[in-house]
Each structure stands twice: as C-alpha cells, then as structure tokens.
UniProtKB/TrEMBL annotation:
Its cofactor is [4Fe-4S] cluster. Residues 544-576 are annotated as: Disordered. The lineage of its organism: Eukaryota, Metazoa, Ecdysozoa, Arthropoda, Hexapoda. Belongs to the aconitase/IPM isomerase family. Its EC number is 4.2.1.3. GO terms for cellular component: cytosol; mitochondrion. NCBIfam families: aconitase_mito (TIGR01340), PRK07229.1 (NF005558). It catalyses: citrate = D-threo-isocitrate. The keyword Lyase applies. It is found in: Mitochondrion. Catalyzes the isomerization of citrate to isocitrate via cis-aconitate. Residues 101-537 form the Aconitase/3-isopropylmalate dehydratase large subunit alpha/beta/alpha domain. This is Aconitate hydratase, mitochondrial. Binds 1 [4Fe-4S] cluster per subunit.
Amino acid sequence: MASMVFSHCSGLVPRNFPPVPWNGLAWVLVVLWETKSVKMLLIHSPRSLAVLRHQLASKKCYMSSTAMSRFDPDANLPYEKLTKNLEVVRKRLNRPLTLSEKILYSHLDEPQSQEIKRGVSYLRLRPDRVAMQDATAQMAMLQFISSGLPRVAVPSTIHCDHLIEAKTGGVEDLARAKDTNKEVYNFLATAAQKYGVGFWKPGSGIIHQIILENYAFPGLVMIGTDSHTPNGGGLGGLCIGVGGADAVDVMADIPWELKCPNVIGVKLTGRLSGWTSAKDVILKVAGILTVKGGTGAIVEYTGPGVESISCTGMATICNMGAEIGATTSVFPYGGRMKKYLEATGRKDIANLADKYASLLTPDSGAQYDRVVEINLDELEPHVNGPFTPDLAHPISKLGENARKAGWPLDIKVGLIGSCTNSSYEDMGRVASIAREAMDHGLKSKIEFDVTPGSEQIRATIERDGIAQTLREFGGTVLANACGPCIGQWARSDVKKGEKNTIVSSYNRNFTGRNDANPATHAFVTSPELVAALALAGTLDFDPRTQKLKTPSGKEFLLSEPNGDELPSRGFDPGEDTYAAPRKDGSAVQVDVSPSSNRLQLLEPFDAWNGKDLQDLFVLIKIQGKCTTDHISAAGPWLKFRGHLDNISNNMFIGAINIENGQANKLKNQMTGDYATVPEVARYYKSKGQGWVAIGDDNYGEGSSREHAALEPRHLGARAIIVKSFARIHETNLKKQGLLPLTFADPLDYDKISPTDKVSIKGLTTLTPGKPLTAVIKKADGKELKIQLNHSLNEQQIQWFKAGSALNHMKNQLK
C-alpha cells in the first residue's frame, strides 16, 4: 500500500509526484490549507491518481465552506469549479447558453477539449452524486462488488421505497415488508456500510422526495437508478434517470457518458390559479409532445409563469417529464426554490445560490431547439389516460370522451401521493376539499388511498391534522413508499380481467401498471381532481361547473382548493431513518447465500467472439407498445430484482406476440411446441442458439430498470431490432453488451416473420455511424437484406466487444 502527502490547491505539488511506484492502491493524504483540515483519499487506479494530480497541479480543486448536504459534510458545493469550467466553455462556444447547457457543460470532465454539439456528440461528465432505489440498487451494488473497487468515489445513497406492498395500512404494511425483505435490506445495508453509501431505511420515504428534501440543489448534476429522478429539477438540478451500470461508472470514478441533449423550451406565461395545478402543466405538455417527443432532449421551463409555481410543484412537473421521454427537466433558480431550501434547513445553500444566480438561470437570447408556449391563465385542469400518459383530456371533455370510447365511467379507486404529488402543499389542498365536503355531509364514494412521499411529510401532515382529515374523508394512509404506483398493491376489490376505472395523482398508467390487471383503465391527474372525482364517483364530473348533492338533497359547488405551500410551523422530521456509512468499511461482511432466491452474485457475460452473428432465431416479434413493464414486469417480481436468473422468468411476459396476438405464448422454433417466452428462451440458450427480439417505436419507454436489458442478455439475446428506442433503455442494452439496432427503413419491420433467421453482417468492421446489414433467411430458404442503424460510439463498441461495460471497466483496471 503506497502513501503520499501533498498540498491542496496550493500549487505546491512535488515534481516527482507520485513519489513511489504504483502497486495497486494508495492512500493519499491531502492537506486542505484553505480549511485547515486534512483528508485521506483512497486511490484505486493509476488513472484516478493521475487525474487527482492534474487537478491539484492546475488548481482545479475548488473549495467551498458549504456542504452539499448535512449528510455529506466532506462534499462541498461545486459552484466555483463549475463557474471556472463554464468560462472555458463560453469562450469555445461564444453564444448565449440555456440553463441546461450551463449546468451540463460545467460538469464536463474536460471542458477545454470535449466536442459539444447538441444531438450529436457524446459528453463525458462528472456528476455530483448518485441515488439508487432498493429495487435497482441490488443489481447496481452487485455490479459494483464485481468491479473489485473498495469504495464509491462520489456521494451516493440507497433508498428503500420499492419493496413495500400496500395492503392494509402504513404501519402494518411496513412491518410486513421489513420481515419479508429482511435478506435484501440486510444486503443493501451492509453493502452501503462497506462501500461508503448512505442508507435510507424502509419507511423513510420515496427516493425522489428524500432527494428533494435533503440532497438536491440548484446546479446539481445527479444520476439516479429510477426513471423519475428528474424530480430534482424542481430545485434547479439536472437529475437524470439511468440504469445501474451507469451508476457503477460514476461510483467508480469513471466519467459518465451522455449524448449531448437538445433543449426544448417551455415558456410559461400567466399564473396558476383555481383548480389548475402544477400537474396540469405536465399533463398538457405530455399531450403536446407525446411519450416520445422529449427523447434526446432536456425540457427547460422559462417565462414569467414560473414564479407562480411552488418548488414542489416544479418537482411534480419535472418528475412526470420522464413520461415524454425527456433526458430530464429543469426550472431556473428563483424565489420559490429559495423558500423551499430555507424551509428544509438549507439556508446556507440558498445564500450561496443567490451569489451564483447567473450560473443557475439561462442567458438572455439563449436558443432552444423547440419552444412550447403555455398560458397558465388559460390552462384547464387535465386528466390523462387510460393506458398511456400522453392521452390528454381537459376536465370539461373527460366525461364525453370516456363515453365515446366506452371506458367505464364509474371510478373504483382514487389514489393520491407517490413521488409525483405528495408534497405538503398537495396534501393540504386535498384536505381543503375534504373538509368542505364533510361540512356538507359527504365523504369519498370510493376507496381512497393516500401515500405520503416521505417520513417528513407523514409526520408533518399528522401533526397538522391533515392526515386525520383524509382518514375521516374515507382515506387509508399507506406507508411512505411507492406502493400502488409501481404495482405494489394487493388489490382485492376487482378480479383480474374485470373492466374498471381508477384515478390517481401518479405519473405512469401503462396497461396493468398499478394492479397487474390489463382491464384496469388508469387515469392520472392532480391530487385535487382525484379528490373531486372521488366525491362524484364518476369520470363525468367537472368540479368547476357541476354541483354535488348533500344527503339532504341540497346542491353546492366545491370551492377552489387551497393549501399552504410550506408548513407554517416548519417540517417535523419524524423518525430518524438514515444510516451513515462507516468511514472505513473494509471490515464489514456482505453476504450473499448461494442458496438464496432473492440475491445472486453476477457472472461476467461472454465477450464477442470476433465474428458476425449467424442464423439468430427471432424469439419474439412484438406488436405495438413495448415498455420496460412489458419486458420486465414489476409488482410481485420486484422481490427477485437481486437475482438475475430468477427474475429472468418474467422476460417479455407482458409483450404481445404478433404471431397470435397473445402475451407470453410463442412457438419454440426448434421443437414446434408452444410455451412461455422465458421457457423458449431458456431452451434456445441450452442449445447454444442465439436470438433477437423485434420491436416497434419507442421500444423500452418507461422505467429505467436495467433488468429489461440484463434478462435478454442472460437468456441468450444478441441484438434487439426495433423502429426506435427510448433513451435509457438503449443505453442499458449497450451497457450489457447487446446490440441495439434500428431499421433504416421502418417499413422493414413488416418484412420479418417469427419463423425467420437473422444474420447480422459487418461486425468485424463495426464503427460509429456505419450501418450493419441483416440477412433475413425465410422458412422457404429465400433471403433478403435490410440495413440496420446503430448509435454506438467508440467506447460503446468496446463494451460490445468485451461483453459488457462492466467487463470493459474491469479489463481497464487490471
């Protein structure tokens, strides 16, 4: 073990640094003259050692006395460094910059030399932190363990929110989850302790709310292993959803790669008022841009209307930006963010952000690739759905549209909360509706479930009487967790296959998403409209114009909802649910039992054999929408997220087979028998037969779950061929050594049959931008050729050749 001492940001770096030969690991003692402190850094690769030396020698280690969070006292706000980086970029580009560009480009690994072209170049970035929820953290930490690295290089956290099933109520459901998931929680807790990761215990709340309350700050770049990570844009950060392999890169001190996004500007004028809420902004945007309209772009909100939206309202808008395929969404720093930072105990961050306001707002004259304008004065409350979050209905048209389409008008369940809409303001506005209704002798006509976003929100609404009001209204307060939003819902009021309608304030409403019932018509809207519709019990109700009838027969019109933006008595933090990592976790034991059905250590995927791919079977040709829920279902399958082989038994079970119009039933081309998709894939794998899957547009939209890439790779896939990909999923496929290919002519999708064999030619000369050729061999022996495109860059081609990005990283560290 080598060791060395040098000064920090002082320019006094010895010329012969490092003074000892490299032998694998080195403790570096860094003297922080500016703060009169000493810090020990564990350097685990020659490259990271060289980077540290370069940073010190060029005085790039900028210090601030303000920590990024109270949980990360050794990690300070990077504003000075970001400003210096941005000065370099400004000189190069010589044009006004959007807010998105300022934040993103100031986090470049090499701002002086990296190519910067929107929609073209790949950026190599240095994110400030990593966040992982428990369902995806299992695979992320298993991959990190496989890397052999001793400790994460950036502040990172794990949040236990996905594995708690909603069944009876918060207290009971949480206790049951802790028992059921004991093995997984223990694995995550000990892995966090060993590798330097903060751990938020079950019951602490939903990852995105915890990030907003504690970690997000204006100018932040964070990656999170959940597609709704963009929630942090409500506090002016670029928070981007990724797969676990991307998180491993950042935790391993490897620059994170992102294709330089375009920037869509949404200009807001007017002011929010009445029944119109922040949720209606993103519901309207989703209707305009559709589920793929934001792909490859950051959505940046601007204009005078911004200041009429609370910080948590901005977070709601950014959160659901994931549903339009956006890389992320962001708001400029302003007074509403400052108020929220102060209310959550971060006045020092707000004060520093004030000083760097020019970094945290767009330049005058900045150019956007597309501009959408919304007048908030004219914006009508919206309800979107069913089955897709971009099917937008103004509330005045909802009943009419539902009748025309034959959707069930009667609502069975109303649900509020989740990561999208569980702020104090949201709960207060719903409580105002509930109180007025109860004053008139009315309660919810339907089951009404409430999910607090965090322990802090739960404790505060309990203290202030809001939770009790919602219970008296007929509500059940569930655990501080994702619950029904992600399918963790033991629903019992309808049978599977029974046509019914539910309305929620969630963000996603794909088929079977909430309750695994494909006949459930799920609509998403604001918490206020959920409450109003729960009083009416039908989709055919507009609370602005239609009256409710009291038990005595008297009619009344609901008042416009109201609620405090922030609690006047401050937030009640509730129970302490955070476990800080050990300073030295080397002695911590992380156990994974070989007999476990929940956890499984990873084996490396096989490297490319250097040849073209010959005679691959078409495992499945998918008809219509194929989200990550179709590829790797959530709900009851969440318990297997740490066991690749077991969770692979859900691969493609929700996808519709074009051959027969059915899900999870296809023909084994080797035996002629019909079986489930995983069974056929396992059979092909056992015979050494590779395969491809064929898909339609926006393949892999939805969740960031990398299991939708890991499972096909594990069961023998070599390529996924589609009309177009969703951003996160395409990256996840590349990370696992699969070829994500698109038809040069989308009509070629129709030329492939389930009985075809596919050979992919041109791999021996695979280079960025150069198309590949697919030779399609028909059952009668005839052949046809089609062109396939790819977006692999030089580094991603190395991932493919090594078998995965993790394999490539391990090769580099040898």
